Amino acid sequence: MTSNLSEQIQQFYDASSGLWERVWGEHMHHGYYGERGDRRLDRRQAQIDLIEELLTWTGVQLSKDLNGQVSTILDVGCGIGGSSLYLAQKFNASATGITLSPVQAARATERATEAEISTFLTPEAGSMTPGPRAEFRVANALELPFADNSFDLVWTLESGEHMPDKKKFLQECYRVLAPGGALMMATWCHRPVAPPAAPLSDRERHQLMEIYKVYCLPYVISLPEYETIAREIGFQGIQVADWSTAVAPFWDLVIDSAFDPSALLGLLLSGWQTIQGALALGLMRDGYKQGLIRYGLLCGTKS
């Protein structure tokens, strides 16, 4: 990841994560509102439902036997540790979360302590601590600081859109997976563009560029393009799905919360970049409504 983009992403999340936690809680991702997007749920419950639905879809269950169990998890783009801690507790496993934001890594570590989840040594060093464990560090997803074959599950929830090299990102995920291990990726995409679909129009490209500028994204690609990359790398048993309808209501709820009087002061204090993000929420909402923005899922295993 280029240093300039990395710095932009770091600054964006350093500034906005505290506000997000106060308003929305620990899960910094979409919620799941039913297959047709018509379920009305508490917003935090919808985010937990998304995690559970993703686990079910991926086929990773508590009884999953990967030479014993899912015992080592890497959360790429961990935010303040929402998924990492949830998965560590669910699987009674060790979870490692990485982020570009020192603020996020520090807060995730605090949250692990508050939840009485032990910190642990890295997979290279090992740990004898029983029960769920968690560690958070600042690291670049394109240069993962872990040995080959380190993790049973690589979990990446809404971070692929930040990657300037999608192939290298998936190659790194594949490298650190143990044989038989699984990747679960959910990421922002644009609509398919391969024939018979039409190429992106000038209007669509302009809309995407506006989204990129606000949310520190280099570019996004379509789900079929991700699938092609995953196959080239060597992932087996690849599954893909488009959950755009199921998650799209999230953006109306984020817009409502951003301009609630209780959140406005925090928004103003978070700085101009965070304010720009709030003012541009409608771009994402409209992108879903127009079919331009898609919520893509991909899972696969390492043989």
Automatic annotation (TrEMBL):
Record region (SAM motif I): 73-82
Keywords, ordered alphabetically: Methyltransferase, S-adenosyl-L-methionine, Transferase
Region ranges (SAM motif III): 176-185
SUPFAM superfamilies, per database record: S-adenosyl-L-methionine-dependent methyltransferases
UniProt KW Methyltransferase keyword: yes
GO molecular function, one term: methyltransferase activity
Start and end residues of each Methyltransferase type domain: 74-184
Keyword Iron: no
Pfam families reported for this sequence: Methyltransf_11 (PF08241)
Region (SAM motif II): 149-157
Gene Ontology biological process terms, A to Z: methylation
Family: Belongs to the class I-like SAM-binding methyltransferase superfamily. gTMT family.
PANTHER family on file: GERANYL DIPHOSPHATE 2-C-METHYLTRANSFERASE (PTHR44068:SF11), ZGC:194242 (PTHR44068)
Protein name per Swiss-Prot or TrEMBL: Methyltransferase domain-containing protein
UniProt source species: Phormidium pseudopriestleyi FRX01
Species classification: Bacteria, Bacillati, Cyanobacteriota, Cyanophyceae, Oscillatoriophycideae
